[in-house]
Structure formats: structure tokens, C-alpha cells
Amino acid sequence: MNRTENEASRMVLSPSMKLADLIELNYSLLAVLSRLGIDLGFGENTVGEVCEEHGIDLSSFLLICGIYTYDDYIAPNDLLKAGNPADVVKYLHSSHSFYLDDELKKLEKSLEELVAPCDETQKKIIYRFFSEYRKEVENHFAYEEETVFPYVKSLLSGGSRNGYSIEQFEENHSNIDEKLNDLKNIVMKYLPSVCDTVLRNSVLYHIFFLEEDLDKHTLIENNVLVPMVTRLEEHEKRQQ
Amino acid sequence: MKNDSSKKVLLIIPSRIMVRGIEGVFSDLGEFRVEGILSDISRTSETRLKNMDADLIIIDPVVFDYATRPSGRSYIAEYTDAAVVALQTIVMEDDVWKQYDEVISIYDAPPVIIRKLRTALSAHQELPKPDSHELSSREKEILICVAKGMLNKEIADLYNISIYTVITHRKNITRKTGIRTVAGLTVYALLNNLIDSSSVE
User: Fold this and answer.
1) A1-32 pLDDT, tens per residue?
2) Fewer CB near the last or first residue (10 Å), C or N of chain B?
3) B178 touches chain A (CB under 8 A)
């Protein structure tokens, strides 16, 4: 769905586009809207109008939507220059809470339901695996929430850098997709046949969705936030 | 001329000019055809690498950063069993080139390129193919050790094999099961009754 044949045939996301058309182009942007606090019912309003109404920085919005929509999206320099990192941080923060408070809880619940017919040992080891995964995600997000985001905010308000730089984030940015991928394989290939197929499918759909979404999340961090902040750091250095 | 018997080649080359050049050589001389082109080794590229089913890969090792270059060949091997030929565009350490099945230089004449690709393919086909999808008994033994939390060094000592062999087995286990983490392998081992819960407490 997200793949287009070449650059020329691809629709450029623009402020004058109707928001409804944008969703038609890529419906997984629905999740992006809700994380940015944009409610449905926007009628015929354009992307630009909706952003203005909600006080969301247009360039950041277009960047996030671009990454979500095209696999090989390259963030254009003018948008990176015009975009406000604070809005990107706001988006990343609310998607963190979306994962931890909604998605992982839902996944855990449906996984519990799925493995209910298994024997106790099997259940125990799967629960343990899942809680290790959640712990990993929590730690990963916590680092960003406690170190990276405050740093970006302080940089924006001209505060001190405390010896940190966004380069360190790039270096420490660990992968959290391995365990989720393992869980997918376990559910798909190795759970005993007492587990219900319909439930199994729905858990798998959920994992596939999360996998893709977390992948985009990482791309937004690496290809939007990091270059924006690097630019800020360079700017600051020049002023000194 | 395209024909069905021509070998599928995947190019992992950032330079468009080089890609065009190789396509030109292939279309003049036949036998090989370009099945896909990747300009880097990103996550999307990995997926394509895995799904492409190419017979041969031509890679410019500049796509790897300096530190990962010496292990570039084994990185590719994690995704595909194709023969891998390096395209030499810049000077690198000898170790970088040695790992590949063949090395072509940008100054090689077209017939030389084709001959090198042929050599790479036939040399590669003589190697035993890891074609089974089931775990071998040695792989199962090693999987059990991993699930119990043993380190590669400990496993190597236990079976009196090199660490390198242990790593190869672990790579094959991951390739066959699709499971990459130790925690995931533990779940796998338990669900397949290779271990009981007492051994992972």
C-alpha cells in the first residue's frame, strides 16, 4: 500500500490538500491524528487549516505524515529547517504513552486470552517473555523521556546543554524490535494447537501493526528529530 | 537479450553510474540480468535482500561503515545464500576483499567481469547448502545451552568446538526459527519440549 513505483507518480503531501484525502491516501495516519490531538469530524478542511486550528506546526506535521506514508521518504531540508522540534517531541511523547498505556496493555490482554488453554509452565514462560519485552520498551522510552526530550526543550529555550548532544542519542538508540519480532514468530509458528486460531490471528494483526508503527516511530526520531536538533546545535555553536 | 535461464543478480551499489555500467555489460553479454538494485543497507533493504531470491549479489563494500566492512560478507549471509561478489571502487584493506567469493574491479573488461561472476557462482554452488528448515541435532543441543543462559565461550568449551562454530550454529538457529533473542529462544525451547521449566528458573 505504501509503496509507489517512483518519485514522479507519488503524491506530494501539501498544506492545501484536504485532510480527508490524506487519510484516504494512507489510513494508518489516523493514529497520527489522534496522537496529535486532532479529532475526527474535520469536514472539508485542508491540512493547513486543521494544523492552524490545532496549533500544530505544519512542517512537522508534513514530515511525520511523509515518513508514515512512504517507506523511502527523505525529509526535505526546507521542512526540517521550518519545523519546530518541540512539536515533534510532543508527538513522540504522546505516541510513547499510546504504546505503554493502550497498545501494550491491549496486546498483553489478548495474549493472555490466547494462551489460556496452554499448560501452566508454557503460560508462565510466555508471560515472562512479554513482561521482559515491556520492560525493555519502558526503559527505551524512559531514556528518551528523561534525557533526550528535556535536552531538546532546554536547547530550544536557550538553556544549558549539560555536556549532552543529540549525537549521543543516535549512538545509544537501541533496537527494541527484536523481541516483538520473536513474539510474532512464537505466536505464528510455535504455540500449541490448543490455542484458538481467530484469537491467534488477531494477536498477529496487532503485532504486525505495532511492528510497523514502532518502525515509523524510530524513523521519525532518527530522520526528523535528530536532523532538526543537529541543526539547532550547529546554529547555537555559530552564535557563540 | 533476456531469457529465463539468465542468473538473477542483485546490485547493492550506491553509484547510479556504476549500476548503469553493470546493466550495460549484462545486456551486451547476456547470461546475467539485474533483478534488483539497492543503494544502501537500510532496514527496508534488508527485507528486500531476504525476499529477492537472487543467485548472485554484487556489492560495493562502501555501503558498510568502516567498522563493519570486514564482516560485510557474513552480514549478507544472514539474509541470503546467494554468492556475493565485491565491486572494488575504492582502496580498502585486504581483509575486506578476501571474504567475498570474487572481486571485480571497475577497470575489468566486460568479459572478465562475466568470467568472474561465473567463477563465483560455481565455487559457491559447490558448498553444502544449508537447505533444511528443521534444526539439526547439534543445533538443538546448542539451542538448549543458549536457553539455559550459557555464554558462547561456555558452549564452545562444553562441545569442544570453536566460538566461531557456536556463532555459526546460533545464526542458523535464528535463520531457521526466526527468533533472535535469548529470551525468545528460551520460549521456543520450552514450547518444543527441548527443556523443562526447572532448567530455566
Assistant:
1) 444 445 545 677 899 999 999 999 999 999 99
2) C
3) yes
